[in-house]
Design goal:
2 copies of one chain form a homodimer.
Chain A: H1 2-6, H2 22-29, H3 32-44, H4 48-55, H5 60-69, H6 72-80, H7 84-93, H8 96-106, H9 109-117, H10 121-129, H11 133-140, H12 145-155, H13 162-165, E1 172-174, H14 179-188, E2 198-202, E3 208-213, H15 214-219, H16 226-229, E4 237-238, H17 243-253, E5 257-261, E6 267-272, H18 273-291, H19 304-331, H20 333-338, H21 341-369, H22 375-408, H23 411-441, H24 446-477
Parallel strand pairs in A: 1-2, 4-5
Antiparallel strand pairs in A: 2-3, 5-6
């Protein structure tokens, strides 16, 4: 409210449509200047009371950005003035390396414990996951049994599974409970369980039976049994389901939240759509970056030397494959000596094979990620891609051939480039489909290696096809 | 329940972790065989009553897949036996081309009207958006005024804006209303408004003031005023905000649902996280496919010839750039004639320049999409990338140079490749950053053209650097 008094215009997210920095644009409309300057001065002058009351009005993600930009001790001063729950949110919003620093070097285990106590169990687990084992146990020793159990359970699930995504903070009632009873259960649910969409219904063994939307709960008669009003349409998710599959599942069935169960059907927790939003964004980043040949975790903020090292490894492998194609060319030295023009033209065949391959790889890798490409439709996809490769091979081959003929007047070379392009585009479409499909089969993320493996094939094929055909045809036609 | 009797195992989403087709895996656990066979036979034998009761138990997205696999008239028979609301959901789940067929050729306007009436306003608008104008007006003529207004408003927002994403089905109460009043408002809210998370609070002018979670509503005393219990932390979104920014906003602030307002702050509708899930997936697909040189809308099901045409255009442009680099090589024919080895080595420089460029482009394009790369940090990013280019250029240059020297014993050529690689990786990192940044400035999606433009630069630079340096140095050292 305070902020409303200072600032006339309402807090509004507004964009001119192009992709400018979000925080920037948001805060601009919230008159960042105004409040950041205020916040800065409050911190600089160490105005404890004003600060404490003011930061209540600021988004934790904005505070996080703010602290990251500040001097270490100023940032720390601000952080220490946040209420523990805010501290948790800010930690969560920090860049990874900042969070690491705070958790490992700055905060002591009792501070971490205080923060964790105020966080929903999944976030608490995320925070602990950053610490080394002994610090974890030191922190856990400081929080009550009930929370300890929840958090340790969550920590026990492998990253990238539904179990690691879910929160233990849900509200469950018995099939035979009344709506009245359900409401009082809801009332007793912890403050942390605020973003509740559904109340889950379980049987005596705690097995998931169905759900009730809070709307239904409000609109039903207090004495009616939950069994009567519960819906069963929510498909529960098993704890060990891969998180990418969970994401596709949410998008497929348009869920806002879904229950998580163990193998015996016992309700373990719930996953909400906002967790999935992050999964989708991370998975997409991973695929895009990996296809580009950088680590899926690379960010603009990743330390420069680590980045450089990770990338150079990839380039080194690439150097190897490049030498491979070079050796192919070597084989045809004599041919090139005869007709140097070939040296100028051969990269064309390789380049277009590469581009055609990338087109196929992009389509295939993406559809694997979306779960659209299955064993069922692999064959049809291969056929489809090969047909496209054939059609486009003919078209591009003809264009190139004709141009070459018009420029050089050399039919033989024109014919060579036509055939070489045609075949290489066929190869491209075939390998472009098979490599990612194969990688998936052997449980390697197709986004990682596909592009390079395929590119190598098309380079080698491109050069050998072109120069091979050339040496044959030029021999026949006796060109020198 | 019916289904529970037929099938022992509970409906459970379970995965072996690798990315198999989702529907497949889900349904397997729901014993697809069992129910698909049943469904098929019911359809084949035209058992109306059994069919009607059975399909109640099946997910609309599964029915959609099922119909797509069936014979046209069988599918239509099944579709016509669905209740109108189910029909809407199924339409929504259809592949685009199937939905088109149903909406344009199969269903008449009164059928469409019946379906739309049962859909939330945003889906209704999505369905109408597929039709030509006159069919739209024919359909609208058949639905009551209130819905007509809602839908037409939604249709008025440009695609890719918050306005086009939002639904008009929300529950809003006055600041001075009591909780009791709010609950009765909620009660009157249409059946379609079932996935409600918040009740929104507005002032006399309908301007958005805050929100109340249903949990708070349940737990508050009936006579207390909503003004007292409402929260203000939800940042409203403007109707014309770009949908990609809305998505980044949801992920940044972990929202489940957010209110949408107009320029005067009047509450227009709400966007829920499940809409955003689809946005994120679509945007990611678009970027991945475009970076691969295919249309952002290409799917495994896109008609083959259209795909082929769209791709060949891209390849043709590529052919042009390839000829460009070829002409560069032409210039150095004499040099190559002298030392044919150069012909074998020059693709190495181009290839590695290309890979290094892709690494930068992937990082930059992705961070632009995430709104992480801003005018504020562009300079620092360029410096960062160039430094990496320099470091990796030296490393890769040295490795290549040493290998060449060991293999050929030719210092001059070894030195040439070292320098050429070093410079080309520098160029790669520079253009790899600048091109996408520039494209964003001129409002072109960087995902579309970056890769090719950058690749062209690195090819041309690679060949000219390598061959240029070679002709100089070889002349100096007088190698022949």
């Amino acid at each position: 409210m305070e902020r409303d008094e200072q600032i006339e215009t309402p807090d509004v997210l507004e964009f001119d449509g192009d992709h400018e920095d979000l925080s920037e644009t948001v805060s601009l409309n919230r008159q960042e200047k105004l409040w950041t300057e205020l916040l800065e001065s409050l911190v600089r002058e160490r105005k404890d009371t004003e600060l404490t009351s003011f930061i209540k009005e600021v988004y934790s993600s904005d505070i996080a950005d703010f602290i990251e930009k500040m001097e270490q001790e100023d940032g720390l001063y601000l952080f220490r003035h946040l209420p523990p729950d805010e501290q948790g949110d800010v930690l969560y919003e920090f860049e990874d390396h900042v969070r690491d620093r705070y958790l490992r070097d700055i905060l002591n285990s009792s501070e971490v414990a205080a923060i964790i106590l105020e966080q929903p169990s999944d976030r608490a687990a995320d925070i602990l996951a950053e610490l080394d084992l002994e610090s974890v146990s030191r922190v856990l020793a400081r929080i009550p049994y009930e929370d300890r159990v929840k958090v340790t359970e969550l920590l026990s699930y492998p990253e990238n599974t539904a179990g690691a995504l879910m929160t233990k903070d849900f509200v469950a009632v018995q099939q035979n409970d009344t709506v009245k009873k359900a409401i009082s259960t809801l009332r007793r649910a912890s403050e942390r369980t605020d973003d509740i969409q559904f109340i889950y219904v379980v049987d005596e063994e705690g097995a998931y039976k169905g759900h009730i939307s809070l709307k239904q709960l409000i609109l039903s008669r207090p004495q009616s049994r939950v069994k009567r009003i519960m819906k069963e349409e929510l498909l529960p998710i098993r704890a060990y389901t891969d998180r990418e599959d969970v994401a596709n599942f949410f998008t497929r069935y348009d869920f806002i939240a879904a229950p998580v169960i163990d193998d015996r059907g016992v309700l373990l927790g719930r996953i909400t759509a906002d967790d999935i939003l992050e999964v989708l964004q991370e998975e997409a980043s991973e695929d895009i970056l990996r296809m580009g040949g950088v680590s899926g975790e690379e960010r603009l903020t990743t330390p420069l030397l680590r980045t450089s090292l990770q990338r150079v490894v990839w380039l080194a492998v690439n150097l190897g494959t490049a030498f491979l194609s070079a050796s192919v060319i070597q084989v045809f030295e004599k041919t090139i000596e005869k007709v140097v023009l070939l040296a100028a033209l051969m990269p064309i065949v390789a380049a277009l094979g590469g581009s055609a391959a990338n087109q196929t790889v992009a389509l295939v890798v993406r559809n694997i990620a979306l779960g659209e490409l299955t064993d069922a439709n692999t064959r049809s996809t291969v056929t489809r891609e090969i047909t496209i490769g054939l059609i486009n091979g003919i078209i591009i081959g003809l264009i190139a051939g004709i141009i070459i003929f018009l420029v050089t007047g050399n039919q033989a070379i024109a014919l060579v480039i036509l055939l070489a392009l045609l075949f290489n585009l066929l190869v491209a479409s075939f390998v472009g489909t098979m490599v990612p499909v194969f990688l998936r089969k052997v449980k390697v993320d197709p986004a990682i290696a596909s592009s390079m493996m395929v590119a190598t094939c098309t380079d080698v094929m491109g050069f050998s096809l072109f120069l091979g055909l050339a040496s044959v045809l030029l021999h026949i036609t006796g060109t020198t």
